[in-house]
Amino acid sequence: MRLSNIVLIAGVGVVAFCLFRIAALPGPDNIPQADAGKASPSCETRKLADDAPQRLSILGVSPSQNTIGGKIRLCVYGVVSKAAEAKAAADGETPAKVELSVWFNGVRSPQTISADPVFGPRDYAIPLTTPEDASKDLATFWRSVLAGGAPLGGELTLESAFEKLKDWRPEYAFKSIEIALSRADAGAPETRPPAIFRLGVYEQKAALLGLLGFVALTAWVALFARESTLLRENGRTTASGAPAGPYSLGRVQMAFWFILITAGFLVLWLTIGQYNSVMTSSVLALIGISGTTGLAAIAINGDEMKSRTSKGFLPDIFSDDAGPQLHRIQAVVWTLILGLIFAWNVLWNFRFVDFDAQLLLLMAFVNGLYLGFKPKEAT
Predict the structure, then answer these.
(1) Rg from Cα positions in the chain
(2) pLDDT tens-digit series, residues 53-80
(3) Is-contact 297 250, C-beta < 8 A?
């Protein structure tokens, strides 16, 4: 069996195991709690301390940690003053509910609380759900809150990664969230100090399995390309039938963006559950530019190109028969730069980057120069 087939089977197996791992995780609201076993009084029965602030405040958050898709409950008091509550009771009035804004890490949520107009403690549920459509205001809110990602917990080494995988118990990467409240018409949080809870951004073992699967499938593409004409300029073979044609810069660029965008899409889907409206117009433009470059490169190839043989991956990408060429080098460099920016935005900001028109024009010009010089390479 070819090495590429072995790597493919291993990669598919790891990815399948990763998806099974995600499906087998306890649902939201059922993750282990750091304070498990500690009984806490219900919100309504809590007694305020004599020195408790006589203003809108959060008494507590439960549970202390949860994942996206679950919910938390806030114990809130001071929605109205004692005097206002007493006056309404004396007048026999039924005051309207008070709309409260919820703030996570200083970012106002589109979700609000319709609070009872009382001073005493009341319990309110806050859903931690994200819409599937990345263009929704709530989806934008969650990306702002989660920007910066979450640590894996300790230094990650190859040894520690395998140690993590040995233990089947869920282990989440948590991000600390400061929750505050304000009246709906206020421009800043009113509750001080903010309440704290921990949000599980992703399950660490599933993330490690996904990373291993990505590495394995990327290695398969590289091995398959070496054993076939997938990324080559022509179908020339050796006497033994092995492919001998030079690697095509245009096709390699297509494969680069295909792997990167597919992996980024899966990361967003499996972490924050967003898959609709994830693609940006600039990412689609990059796919179009790389695809057009690969197609045009095939059309430009002359008879001389069909007879060329490979000198190795890097020499084929950076050089023609005369040696290294600047137009090829700049195409590779700018593709890598934009690829790194794309990957950083997916992992750090949980979104597909939206490159401006100037960067897209730059990529179009760079690839256009590569195509413009290509007929000269074939002579």
Answers:
(1) 28
(2) 788 999 889 888 888 888 999 999 989 8
(3) yes
Conformational region of residue 136, where left means phi above 0, alpha means psi within -120 to 50, and beta covers everything else: beta
Residue 247 burial (CB count, 10 A): 21
DSSP string spanning 263-329?
HHHHHHHHHH---BT-S-HHHHHHHHHHHHHHHHHHHH--HHHHT-----HHHHHHEETTEE-HHHH
Tokens of 347: 């992992």
- Whole-number Å distance between alpha carbons of 74 and 43: 9
Q: Do 129 and 269 lie in a common domain?
A: no
pTM above 0.85, yes or no: no
- Residue where a domain terminates, one of 153, 185, 201: 201
Distance of alpha carbon 294 from alpha carbon 315, whole angstroms: 18
Q: Which two tokens stand for residue 366?
A: 């760079």
